[in-house]
Amino acid sequence: MALEAWYMDDSDADQRLEHRLTPNAPASLEALAALGVLHFKFSGDEEDPEMLKLRDSRGYSYKDVVNIHPDTLPDYERKLKSFFEEHIHTDEEIRYVLEGSGYFDVRDKEERWIRILMHKGDLIILPAGIYHRFTLDEHNYIKACRLFVGEPVWTPYNRCEATDVMDARKGYVSHFIAADGAATAAAAASS
């Protein structure tokens, strides 16, 4: 199954709904790459040899597995709402879906939301400093491998004036928003 992404509507309805515009406005892999978002498709096996090659080539030395479901995540509703707060990280965010499905939303250059539907086998890399958020879809279940370079630092910085002047955000803006993001993304993918 190919990765599917689209521009979102402005509805305040349940965050787990698709929120597609009418008519649908797809976002291409090229549009995502221009924002620094990289996507890879693997088997969904935690030990997939091609995924392990990517992991090693990018220096991801730590991993853990999260299981997000009302029965497995304490305080599920509150945590799901916190994942959906718009935020950045100072490091890349890497997620590899082992089971289930969910959405990553990212801001484009014009501040519009793009929704990315993730299924088993999808691996996504969000660059440090990109405004994004996560939610499950209506199935309310995802099992995903989180990868990190070195010790995990999973601190979300919710969007505010202070995040716009953080080094990670300024670096992201200079590489992907102010510059030619497609060329920068191509270079990042090949490293």
UniProtKB/TrEMBL annotation:
Its EC number is 1.13.11.54, 1.13.11.53. Pathway: Amino-acid biosynthesis; L-methionine biosynthesis via salvage pathway; L-methionine from S-methyl-5-thio-alpha-D-ribose 1-phosphate: step 5/6. Keywords: Amino-acid biosynthesis, Cytoplasm, Dioxygenase, Iron, Metal-binding, Methionine biosynthesis, Nickel, Nucleus, Oxidoreductase. It is a peripheral membrane protein. Ni(2+) binds at residues 87, 89, 93, 132. Fe(2+) binds at residues 87, 89, 93, 132. CDD domains: cupin_ARD. GO terms for cellular component: cytoplasm; nucleus; plasma membrane. Binds either 1 Fe or Ni cation per monomer. Iron-binding promotes an acireductone dioxygenase reaction producing 2-keto-4-methylthiobutyrate, while nickel-binding promotes an acireductone dioxygenase reaction producing 3-(methylsulfanyl)propanoate. InterPro entries: ARD (IPR004313), ARD_euk (IPR027496), RmlC-like_jellyroll (IPR014710), RmlC_Cupin_sf (IPR011051). Belongs to the acireductone dioxygenase (ARD) family. PANTHER family: ACIREDUCTONE DIOXYGENASE. This is Acireductone dioxygenase.
